[in-house]
Write a structure and sequence with these properties.
The protein has three helices and four strands; from the N terminus they run E-E-H-H-H-E-E. Bound molecules: zinc ion.
Length: 95
């Protein structure tokens, strides 16, 4: 079972997995807030990657001092392959 999103705190953990992206009913109480509900795995992965890139871009925009270390980490992980930076150091989405 591929878990696309996992969030947790001291009260427990919530996951977006095949129960969400393969759902055939309209009810959704997933941590993705419906982004991946019933979309199928391929579209759900694309949605999650896009949301991750956008979150990363917003975070780097607020913390530009970490952009190099964040960029090298996400590049190694390969999940945010489309994230790159312009010559002023601003994150850009190449997809
Ligand atoms: Zn979900």
């Amino acid at each position: 079972m591929a878990v696309l999103i996992r969030v947790g705190n001291s009260e427990g953990e919530r996951r977006c997995d095949e129960r969400c992206y393969n759902a055939t009913t309209s009810h959704c109480d997933c941590c993705c807030n419906g982004m991946n509900h019933g979309k199928g795995r391929q579209q759900a992965e694309a949605n999650t990657a896009k949301a991750g890139r956008e979150m990363l871009q917003r975070w780097i925009g607020k913390h530009p001092e970490f952009k190099e270390s964040v960029f090298s980490t996400v590049t190694q992980l390969g999940f945010f392959d489309s994230v790159s930076f312009d010559d002023r150091g601003n994150p850009i989405d190449t997809k």
